[in-house]
Amino acid sequence: MRQHIVILLFNNVEVLDFAGPFEVFTAANQLLGGDRFNVCTAAALPGTVIARHGLKIVPDHTLENCPAPAVLVIPGGAGIRPLLNQPALLEWIRVRARRARLVMSVCTGALVLARTGLLDGLRVTTHHENLDELAQLAPTATVDATARFHDNPGLHASGRILTAAGISAGLDCALHAVSLLAGPATAAATAHYLEYNPGR
Fold this sequence. Notes:
By secondary structure, the protein is of the alpha/beta class. It has helices spanning 15-31, 80-83, 87-99, 109-116, 131-137, 169-182, 184-193; strands spanning 3-8, 37-43, 49-50, 56-57, 61-62, 71-74, 102-106, 123-124, 142-143, 149-152, 160-164. It has a single domain (3-193), classed as 3-Layer(aba) Sandwich (Rossmann fold), CATH 3.40.50.
């Protein structure tokens, strides 16, 4: 049975925040034979989403008809601010997180997870320009900028929570998620296929 990997989209989303994980998960799926993951996008409303710098995307689903995610990815970007004050969206994330295997934020997507309460008591990170804001929104979390991403296994009643630092760190976090879902060898093969080696 394929696992649904759902990436939330919204106007002014940072392009690499969603496109990086999308590329990682779809490449991993290809290497696994094409039937392990269903990687899709979802937005609050139907129609075109305009990302940072004018890139236009048509999401696959709305929140109402979106499949239940095994992995839920919340990217960041300048458009994150309106999401912090959308109770219906925040509740949708809370509900889906309870049943997801993994919930992953990239960059300022962590601010949305903080607003839902999902980061309470966890070790977390976000873009370096927003660390103080994250600490204010999640006062019981430990904000730690020393790592590209943080994993919190077994520390939350909802799905396992991952938070990535800014923008390109979403690649590292997504590869870690692939390792959790399909094993370290698949994650290594995916990174090799993408020619992604930040330490090189």
